[in-house]
């Protein structure tokens, strides 16, 4: 909307320009809030309730809680229809499959890198969630906080560029809005929609459409897939005359153009070595425009 060329639509956009940045920022008074109907998979559902902020203490207490010298706050990955710690995932599996990190780990990553991802960080400043409301009566917000925020060293938060300085996330308990006992047939179903557009029903395990109401041509890929995002990004870059970004041949190459984002990402991955290795999706990002 901001780059539509229409003043009325630009005014309705949640973004604006700022004097001290070439990238867009959220308008004053606009915030991102996240409601979770269920505790995210991974460390948050494994961790004990921890009421301290020291990373070393968290690791110590988590190990005592989990027993056998293991930490309950390990990084977890979806592989072979199961969720397992990355330290137990064979390299052969990581190399042959596109494996996704747990919800807990993705949320933790967002608190440092922002929710916008590498591509959009070329156009906008990092976007951070300011509050998380948990509507799951069976789990504690302190365990969620430990998994999402407290695994990251304070030293890292202070060493990153100003725009990536970690913002405080507030955690609240909220009312449940649905049953936690999902129908097995619905566990892999994902819905997405936008005002003025059709509802898209996706098999999240495959990234493919279940319905055919989406306006995505003849493809059965979701409009939120990487290829679609690559296409949307190129249209915006072309509209605002970012020829240097249009020269990138592959999705992977374009992501690498986000130098600051990739720098902070590497620092985060290095900081998390105590909890396991964050795998890279090298092969899946090599497709071309």
Shape: globular
Q: Low-confidence segments, ≥5 residues, pLDDT <50?
A: none
Order of helices and strands: HEEEHHEEHEHHEHHEEEEHHHH
Strand content: 15-25%
How do the strands line up in the largest sheet? 3-7-8
Level of helix content?
A: 25-40%
Q: What's a quick, concise take on this entry?
A:
The protein has helices at 7-12, 43-46, 55-66, 91-96, 103-113, 117-120, 141-148, 154-159, 226-239, 243-246, 251-256, 259-271; strands spanning 15-18, 21-26, 32-36, 76-79, 82-85, 100-101, 129-134, 170-173, 189-192, 200-203, 208-209. It has 289 residues and is of the alpha+beta class.
What can you see in these coordinates?
The mean pLDDT is 84. The protein has helices spanning 7-12, 43-46, 55-66, 91-96, 103-113, 117-120, 141-148, 154-159, 226-239, 243-246, 251-256, 259-271; strands at 15-18, 21-26, 32-36, 76-79, 82-85, 100-101, 129-134, 170-173, 189-192, 200-203, 208-209. The protein starts with 6 loop residues before the first helix and ends in an 18-residue tail after the last helix. The strands form four sheets. Strands 3-7-8 form a three-stranded parallel beta sheet, with helices on one face. Strands 5-4-6 form a three-stranded antiparallel beta sheet. A three-stranded antiparallel beta sheet has the order 9-10-11, with no helix packed on it. The protein contains twelve helices and eleven strands. It is α+β, with helices and mostly antiparallel strands and 289 residues long.
């Amino acid at each position: 909307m901001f780059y539509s060329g229409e003043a009325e639509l630009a005014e309705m956009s949640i973004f604006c320009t700022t004097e001290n940045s070439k990238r867009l920022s959220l308008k004053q008074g606009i915030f991102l809030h996240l409601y979770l109907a269920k505790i995210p998979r991974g460390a948050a559902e494994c961790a004990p309730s921890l009421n301290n902020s020291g990373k070393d203490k968290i690791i110590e207490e988590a190990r005592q809680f989990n027993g056998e010298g293991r930490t309950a706050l390990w990084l977890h990955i979806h592989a072979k229809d199961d969720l397992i710690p990355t330290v137990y995932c064979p390299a052969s599996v990581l190399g042959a499959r596109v494996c996704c990190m747990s919800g807990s780990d993705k949320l933790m990553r967002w608190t440092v890198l922002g929710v916008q991802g590498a591509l959009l960080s070329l156009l906008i400043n990092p976007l951070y969630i300011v509050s998380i409301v948990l509507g799951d009566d069976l789990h504690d917000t302190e365990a969620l906080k430990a998994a999402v925020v407290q695994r990251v060293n304070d030293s890292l938060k202070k060493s990153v560029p100003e725009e990536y300085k970690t913002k405080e996330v507030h955690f609240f308990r909220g009312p449940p809005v649905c049953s936690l006992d999902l129908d097995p047939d619905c566990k892999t179903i994902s819905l997405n929609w936008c005002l003025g557009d059709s509802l898209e029903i996706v098999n999240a395990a495959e990234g493919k459409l279940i319905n055919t109401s989406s306006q995505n041509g003849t493809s059965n890929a979701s409009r939120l897939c990487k290829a679609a995002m690559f296409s949307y990004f190129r249209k915006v870059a072309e509209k605002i005359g970012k020829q240097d970004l249009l020269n990138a041949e592959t999705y992977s190459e374009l992501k690498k153009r986000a130098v600051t984002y990739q720098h902070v990402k590497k620092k985060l991955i290095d900081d998390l070595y105590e909890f396991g290795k964050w795998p890279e999706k090298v092969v899946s990002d090599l497709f071309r425009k």
